[in-house]
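Record 1 of the preview.
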Amino acid sequence: RLGSLMVGEDVRLPGGPSLTTRKAGPVALEVRDLSLLGERGVLALKNLSFSVKQGEIFGLAGVSGNGQKELVEVFMGLHDPSHGSIFLHGEPFHSQRPYLLRHGLAVLPELPLQNAGLANLSVWENLSIHEKTYRPRELKARAEKLRQLFGIRTANLDLPLRSLSGGNIQRTVLARELRSDVKILIVANPCFGLDFQATAEVRSRISEACSQGAAVLLISEDLDEVLELSDRVGVVSEGSIVWENQSSNLNFHELARAMGGHGGRHED
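->
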């Protein structure tokens, strides 16, 4: 693929699972004309608009620094947009916990130890953040089930999260977020820094969540990852989507050009 890109060949790719094989439902997540002022007073997001349906993975590809980080932080409640709206199942978005739980929103940011984990708390405590009970024995029992289900490798669930390898930290956060009632999943560079086995496992879990009806927003700089998992792909540049297409119609060279700032918006 890389060689074809370098010599400028027009290579067609199979792409991810198409909508003809994975039936999508109603729109679950909608972002409409979203703008956000960044740290330096420059717009990090600029009239960003897209939607994701139930049972669909929308891949948002782009070079780092084009608003992806800020978009994830909006969903985490760290920023309030300066303009525009977000809707979950047709309801205006806000970051209060009861609302997020009701809509089944799960967020897996990049670098989960820093951004989604509590490094000094135990593995079982990290796995229990969304639980409604506060009985340690019951929480530990549920955490053990998640450990086995997601293959989290640790000598003891009482060990601090920071003691785990990068892949096992990712598995821990993913196990916590992919609870049975997840309806909207947002993941950012989910396999960054992971080995081959961990990468395959994480991607499989994301695809499985979608197959069970979740709407998935996959934000990634890894084109192979985006093409493997996504039903549709958009390219973000300077905080806006500049190109969009079905994965079944994707052309690697065209997608790479769009990521480099060449080529207008397109959708079949």
